[in-house]
Amino acid sequence: MIKMGLKEKEQKFFDYLKKMESYEEALNLMYWDLRTGAPKNGLERRAETIGILSEEWFQMSVSDTMKEFLDELTEKHVYDNLSSVTKKALQECREEYEKNIKIPKEEYKEYVILQSKSESVWEEAKANADFNQFAPYLEKLIEFNKKFISYWGYQGHKYNTLLHLYEPGITVETLDKVFAELKKHIVPLVQQIVQSSKKIDVSFLHKPFPKEKQRKFSEYILKEIGYNFDAGRLDETVHPFEIRMNRGDVRITTKYDETDFRTAVFGTIHEAGHAIYEQNINEELEGTPLADGASMGIHESQSLFYENLIGRNYHFWKRYYNQLKTYAPNQFTGVSLNDFYRAINEVKPSLIRIEADELTYCLHIIVRYEIEKLLFEGNLDVSDLPKVWNDKYSEYLGIAPDHDGNGVLQDVHWAGGSFGYFPSYALGYMYATQLMQKMEQDLSNVEELIENGEFQQIQSWLTKHVHLYGKMKKPLEILKDATGESLNPAYFIQYLEKKYKDIYSLD
Amino acid sequence: MIKMGLKEKEQKFFDYLKKMESYEEALNLMYWDLRTGAPKNGLERRAETIGILSEEWFQMSVSDTMKEFLDELTEKHVYDNLSSVTKKALQECREEYEKNIKIPKEEYKEYVILQSKSESVWEEAKANADFNQFAPYLEKLIEFNKKFISYWGYQGHKYNTLLHLYEPGITVETLDKVFAELKKHIVPLVQQIVQSSKKIDVSFLHKPFPKEKQRKFSEYILKEIGYNFDAGRLDETVHPFEIRMNRGDVRITTKYDETDFRTAVFGTIHEAGHAIYEQNINEELEGTPLADGASMGIHESQSLFYENLIGRNYHFWKRYYNQLKTYAPNQFTGVSLNDFYRAINEVKPSLIRIEADELTYCLHIIVRYEIEKLLFEGNLDVSDLPKVWNDKYSEYLGIAPDHDGNGVLQDVHWAGGSFGYFPSYALGYMYATQLMQKMEQDLSNVEELIENGEFQQIQSWLTKHVHLYGKMKKPLEILKDATGESLNPAYFIQYLEKKYKDIYSLD
């Protein structure tokens, strides 16, 4: 292949990728639209449209054309002359190609049908708190995933292959170590807090706060922290999410609870963390699959950075508490800044993961991780799952579900066939605090910046070390390049111990 | 082809059409989204996405696969065994195929670029009221369209080919006749009104009416007249429009002018007329190109039916005027129902088509029709256009533009290369009144139904005679089947004379 031919081929590859990204933009818009107010009578046909465009995307990812690009552009004498973006794009596409091509078509179809069926059954089983109803589906989903692992291959533990889907580079070996560390420190700290005589008054949190005022305050805070409304918008949905149409259009949604403003305020800050990430990925990657978060965990590190390390920080509210009061003048009468700060950081072991506080959250994840590992090792029968679940909740959180509806059936993930996904949430917490520790070294005055509402410097640091790269680096590469070391749970543990011992006046 | 093979082939054809419709749904959603609040930084990439998906649709419409369907399914022994829906769908696709395939690719590309460039130039020229700036582009656009006509062929007058694009079956011969009739009656009636001593007080129309109240009243009225919010939604845009995602999702938009509530109220009723049409097309046609309005004119007949024959009807306000008052309590103090009715039907010759009243509207169209015909006959130089425009306005409307910005440059249509489109608006008025005349015969108590807010019967009549068919019938076929005769302008003239002589106490 001569030089000219190479450039042309490279360009054709990018045109092909751009077309795939265009399908994705259309699909994402349809997804967003379905959740922000598409009329119900149109849903059936819309589902077909989504199916048809998804199929088109999928076929492009495994087509002969794609195979040709992958083969021709990775021939050594060609590959060496490619730009680093092209190289990474080829790797991404190769992974996607291999992942999809290795599963026999018929089996994949069966699996998609099973997923969809399982989700409806799960919904009913959860409402009935009836695990037996869901168990046969769960068994089949696990069987399918075991078969997929056998097609895809694995290194070390079989479960590594699943982890790789969401968090490439993270293995059972790593997780066993870091989760053991977390348990060792968090479990006793939670116990200390539960047994402590210090009680936090949270009653004022639940006074009525009109939705419209919450919306205005949320918008104000979003602008303050650097969410760009010229490249996004805020809407209302039952389940909040962030979604990217393209680099200049990264939307977020929230929900408003008039008796708990935290839902909207911390929810929007969380989604804005995701969005600020995607609004600041290097423009050069636009139109390729690299214009996306590096992994679920790195994505979550950004949302949690904003939600917790900024949004639940004392210095943040030192600046914004008085502002908040002006949006709901009577709610906070007689509530000092300290009272407020403690209330929004109250620790309370609970049964439901998505309602958990910052300290106990990872324990919910560890329960799920340990169970998933056992399932894929073949050391746990699905029928024993509820018992193991409840035992682990008792052991780590000191409470146990009274029925499977708020126990083992609470999350949709397994019903959708997502195994290996949960650890990413916990990784997000660890990544975030590890990044913060380095940022504090580099900027030296992070608390001051927060207190002064100067978020631009904070964001610039994150953009420089995380956002810009999109998928150009793997998660641990980002972490290593940014902080100088690989995953180290010590920073998260230090952060939690310092913060919560202070709040609960322990030691 | 054996019977079994035929069914399969037919099914494959429908799958193919459904895929095209899916692209269209995605494109329409992107179009809607761009106008209802997509963030500005995303527009550039969005334009590319729209380009890529449109191209995909276009390629499907002229592909070898399409050609095969068209050829194989129209072989006589096959064709005779097809359902009527398949037959009509084949005709639609054949027309689209021929239209697109006959234009050389390179020429079409040049034309698309010219269109886009012309629209920007036109925008500037209009702002500068500088026709000379736009003239060279207009000349090229006309040249291109003349060439297209030579590729497509024509019967009778060359302009017929352009008319066919928007209003199949309507010819210069027909339009010359009906427009002559309209001029003969409307021009003197307008003169009489202008010269009459009767003046209508419209000052109260411009008192402030809060936007939120307008929105609520509009929603109320939309529900009353039968717009189905389970199959649609109402949003705000600079230029109101109606757009269909699918049969269960037909959206409308409006704009709110706080010093003229008529913009929103009559605007939403107008768009709802379009939407009620598309919400009630036969379900069997869904997923084919037949699930669309029969023509621009028939579409317009439905919006005008609702806007004018219902919305500006005395009996309508006899029912809803008191309701309206509750949304804007002070605006209508001392304004009787009769005053109100006359004010919303005030006749006032004006320069701008889109601001014209019901009586003078068609004169604006006739000016444009006569000019387009001259242009395509080769009997008018572009450079003479402003003069001819102004002369015709003086002759038909008794007023002339003071500059080309509110004269010949006012509409975007020509800049986009749309010639032959304007007559559809006037046809909509004639169709609507012709349908109403027959409906009155069939239902005998239409005024009573309106006054009682019983719109279901009215809608059922329209659905039975118009909506259901989608593109299964041509415009004049719909008219003939519904009313027993072809286009007859007498009904529109009668309607106008009766209504406006009454309002202005003439004769």
Automatic annotation (TrEMBL), chains A, B:
Top-level division of the source organism's lineage: Bacteria
Catalytic activity reported: Release of a C-terminal amino acid with broad specificity, except for -Pro
Protein name: Metal-dependent carboxypeptidase
GO MF terms held by the record: metallocarboxypeptidase activity; zinc ion binding
Binding site for Zn(2+): H270, H274, E300
Cofactor: record remark: Binds 1 zinc ion per subunit.
Active site location: E271 (proton donor/acceptor)
Similarity comment: family membership: Belongs to the peptidase M32 family.
Function noted in UniProt: Broad specificity carboxypetidase that releases amino acids sequentially from the C-terminus, including neutral, aromatic, polar and basic residues.
One Pfam family this sequence matches: Peptidase_M32
The protein's Enzyme Commission number: 3.4.17.19
This protein's record includes keyword Zinc: yes
Swiss-Prot/TrEMBL keywords: Carboxypeptidase, Hydrolase, Metal-binding, Metalloprotease, Protease, Zinc
Cofactor field: Zn(2+)
Protease found in the keyword field: yes
Gene Ontology BP term (one): proteolysis
